[in-house]
Design a protein that fits this description.
The chain contains twelve helices and eleven strands. The chain has 300 residues and is an alpha/beta fold. The protein has two domains: 7-87, Winged helix-like DNA-binding domain superfamily/Winged helix DNA-binding domain (Arc Repressor Mutant, subunit A); 90-300, D-Maltodextrin-Binding Protein, domain 2, CATH 3.40.190.290. It is elongated, with a radius of gyration of 23 Å.
Length: 300
Amino acid sequence: MNNNANWDAYRIFLAVVDTQSLSGAGRRLKLSHATVGRHIATLEKRLGTKLFVREPSGYALTGAGERLRAEVEPMSLAAERALHAASSADGEAQGLVRVAIPHSLASYWFMPYLDEFAGRHPGIEIEIVNEVTQVSVKRRDADIVIRPYGPGRENVVGRKIGRIGVGFYASRSYADRFGLPSKREEWKEHRIVGFGGRAAEVELADWLSHVTQGAHVALRCFSDADLVQAVRAGIGISTLVCLTGDHYDNLVRIAPQKLANGTEMWLLAHPDLRDTAPVRAVIDFIGEKAKADRDRLAGR
């Protein structure tokens, strides 16, 4: 590796690798795409080789670029570990920890605990990332991920910490006007708030379609927040995470003993970062609260 290139150049190189675009790397690093382009051009000139080629899908690595990534990625992780270690050298965990967590869990479960966390760990700053399905720990989009499936083939480690209950909900005003379905054939008499496009909550969308066959879809929503507000406004019935549905007094859960479902809740992190002081502090806190709230999370 050419030592004349400074670390900023390699950091920008990795951002382009991850996002496959100059503009995406610029957004991540808070730089203009022109600045990113200049750094990449300078790095290629210093190394005497082309690192990227333009393809329809974006910037793709050349063979030289692949070899450089293999060298630079471990350095990036080592630098982050060193930063966490240095910032926590006085015994108090410090630093930024990015947590990728679904919107419903963040808003109705995790955030109410953050005042307590700040009291315990005043030196740690938490950043919430809601795009869980698009997040990559390897790309450093997040340090910790809470999601409904395990590690798979990714280089992440962790454990299942509970289940997230889901159910069918309607507003009390809707129930007063139209009643609530108690048999499968009664769904055709009701209105549904569905999921727009290919919903991020794929399992919820599929379950909704299966149970409510024949019902009229009055509205489709792309965001969780819009869907919740639509149900609260009495537009129709939909599936909600129980943490969300049970939060509102004006919502009623339909046939909780029959129409109950759930997904696993996994707590994952990169193996090279999970034991750094700030990341470990957040992991332990989340695990502690998930254990205490096991029944509430499951919708029981």
